[in-house]
Write a structure and sequence with these properties.
mainly alpha; single chain; 52 residues
């Protein structure tokens, strides 16, 4: 759980910093992009479950 909280706070910090410096966001700005990232992670985990 500690890793999740640290990841969330570091992501919030990076997002704030990019907005402050008026840089483009370094992540997909739409829900479809986030869903794609989650899909990649789940595909990786399913592969590990069934083939390792």
């Amino acid at each position: 759980m500690k890793e999740v909280i640290l990841s969330l706070f570091s992501g919030l910090f990076v997002g704030f910093l990019f907005a402050l410096l008026r840089l483009p966001i370094p992540a997909p700005p739409a829900l479809a992009g986030v869903a794609g990232i989650v899909g990649i992670y789940l595909g990786f985990k399913f592969f590990q479950m069934f083939f390792n």
